[in-house]
Amino acid sequence: MDLQHIRSFIAVAREGNLTRAAERLHLTQPAVSIQLKNFQQELDLTLLVRTSTGLSLTADGQEILPLAERVLASVRQLQERAAHMQTSISGELSIGTTMNPEITRLGTFLSNLVTACPRLRTKLHHGMTGLVKSQVLKGSLDTGYYVAGPEELIPPELHALHLTVFTHFIIAPQGWRSRVEGKSWSDLAKLPWIWPYQNSVYNRLLSAKFQQHGLIPNVAAEADVEASMLDMVRCGIGLSLARQPVAIREAEAHGIVVLEALPLPSNLYFITAAQRKEEPIIVAAFDAVRTAFAA
Length: 295
What we know:
The chain folds into two domains: 3-86, Winged helix-like DNA-binding domain superfamily/Winged helix DNA-binding domain (Arc Repressor Mutant, subunit A, Orthogonal Bundle); 92-295, D-Maltodextrin-Binding Protein, domain 2 (3-Layer(aba) Sandwich). It contains 13 helices and ten strands. It has helices spanning 3-15, 18-25, 29-43, 59-87, 101-104, 106-116, 129-138, 177-180, 185-190, 201-212, 226-234, 244-254, 280-294; strands spanning 48-51, 54-57, 90-97, 119-126, 143-148, 158-172, 192-196, 218-223, 240-243, 257-273. The chain starts with a helix and ends with a helix.
């Protein structure tokens, strides 16, 4: 079935006149007349009859007209969808995640991204923030979350969007208040520490602070998972570092001592390789995470 025949039938039915229908379709009157004739022959139905005022729909024509209009509407919808698919973002985006998903607003970010780019598939890779940064630089991750110290500079090889600021506190076992409160960094360095692994932001924050004071901490144990570090503090092994809400929770639940007089701030960024920042898939990701943190 020729779509042009359907268009001609609809135009004549709506205009009630061959001349006006031809003008509407930007065709000649004979061309519209032939198309209308062919359409009726194809259906083996009489759809229009001549009257004193022009052309009017028969009973069959009145029944066929809304069906014909739905056909053209479906064709337009198909064409619009195809055009959108040609220009819409598709493919796969690998995202490095770190910390608690609630803190990074991961769910809202992904919801925004899927809404804007329904044909895009995401792959999440969870790891320590330093590892996310190195993998983005190497190209094994497209984007990711990165937590930096307050004085840490983002290298020019990275494009970064600042999202928010976190505060971290030194935490000590229950009963250590007299050993840690009001003490200098020199005094604290002598106490046993549960030391975070190199790729974590905790490691970078503490290392920078001890280096600033020219000190070497007394490392009693190392851990790469926050839950393990917290458990060792609860067991009385030594000091460690925790984000503010975690520190407060541990103090209320387990009597952990929180050194609120020595806050260590950090910055949460969303990063990608600088040379990729103009790619549509990367722009879409940054727009989605920006909106998540603007809410």
